[in-house]
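Re: the 364-residue chain
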Amino acid sequence: MEMDCYDCMRKNCIRSGIDKNKHYSFGSYKYNVFDWLADIEVPPNQMVTDFVEVRFKNGRKDFYRNINKLEIVGGDMVAVEASPGHDIGMVTLTGEIVKVQIKRKGVKIIPDEAKKVYRLARPADIEKRDAAKTREIPVLHKSREIAARLKLDMKITDVEFQGDGTKAIFYYSADDRVDFRELIKKYAEEFRIRIEMKQIGVRQEASRLGGIGSCGRELCCSTWLNSFQSVSTGAARTQQLSLNPQKLAGQCAKLKCCLNFEQDCYLDILSEFPDTNIILDSEAGKARHLKSDVHKKLLWYAYEENPYIFIQLNLDRVQEIIAMNKAGKKPKKIETEAEENNKPKSKYKSSLYEGEITRFDKKK
């Protein structure tokens, strides 16, 4: 029977001639993992793992054991064990790549105690899950009203219903510890379901909400960034950025994750640079470091007697002067003749003497 895929909405996307082992484009590519072990045959003496990775709403993933030996491929909707009841999710990984993912994420799984895959999802299961999903937005609005009524310093960011509709996960963010025991009672009375509260950080909240960054592109955390590493102001200092909180902070009010992207590149190049506290000594005077262009390997110095005139030097020239100073020698000037001739000349011209004040009165 021809039917739409759950996320990518293709007709028969799994069984329409596409290689099922390589088909991994289900929904947002942020949560996809390329199965690079698909073409590698498992040795005859090695057992193929029966664990599969299943994805739910908001990219939440978990590992389940296929104890019933079901023929499952990526993209199949399955009913899996939950506490209590069952949940409906999509299989994202099968085979040996699942072992790699379990090890990479540091998940400790005891095979006998692992959650199980019950069956392939039936049409009735999908309908029940879709009915539960339609309740999420109204429940989210109502839950925020109840939290505001109780004057709790927290923000309800999202609600996720379990596939069978018997349980809901409320995602919230808060700066301090929150006592929500009374809140859970109110939610249980209002919604008549089991309640689970799960706290998320401001970075995770920003990734769920999405938005446009200062670079003009969609936020990295909402498009492709899966793990959040700590970002320090040392990365901004290394890249010689102004320590302005308004410019360095992202929409989550934390330091931008992109500060870490080029950090290794800067550290690699800066390993060739000398200490900026070293003073260059010459017969013309002593010069102090002012600024650097890391990628062009240029440094600007100024004499102590005339600190307002910047002198551009390349990295080789600076290292040469430092080596001469260590040997007890001094150059005549820190700049070479070529660098002195290449000084940028001002193109500014005063408009004070451009012409007479009556020049516009003359006819063409």
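The two ends are 82 Å apart (CA to CA).
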